[in-house]
Amino acid sequence: MTSARIEHDGEHLSPPTPAGQRSLDAILQSASEHSRETIRVLGQLLGNQPVTVMPPAQFAIHHLGIDGLEIASTKSTGPATSLLLLGNLLRLEMHRHAGRVVIGSPGDGLPPTWTQLDIGVDEKLVVPGRLVAFFPADTIASVPLCAAIDDRSWQREFSILSSTAHKAEAERVLADLQRRLKTGENPLRGRVLEARVDDGCLRIGASRALANERADLILPAAVWREVDMFLASATERRELLRSLGLGTNRGLLVAGPPGVGKTHLVRVIATALAGRYTTILADANSVRHHIADIYAESDTFGPTLVVLDDIDLVLGHRDGSGDNTGLADFLATLDGVRQREDILTIATTNDPKSIDPAAQRSNRFDIVITLPKPDEASREGILARHLAPLSLPLDLAELARVLDGATGADVKEVIRRAVLEHGRSFTQAELLEIAASGRWKATVNRRKYL
Ligand SMILES: Nc1ncnc2c1ncn2[C@@H]1O[C@H](COP(=O)(O)OP(=O)(O)OP(=O)(O)O)[C@@H](O)[C@H]1O
Ligand SMILES: [Mg+2]
Question: Yes or no: is domain 376-437 CATH 3.40.50?
Answer without folding.
Answer: no
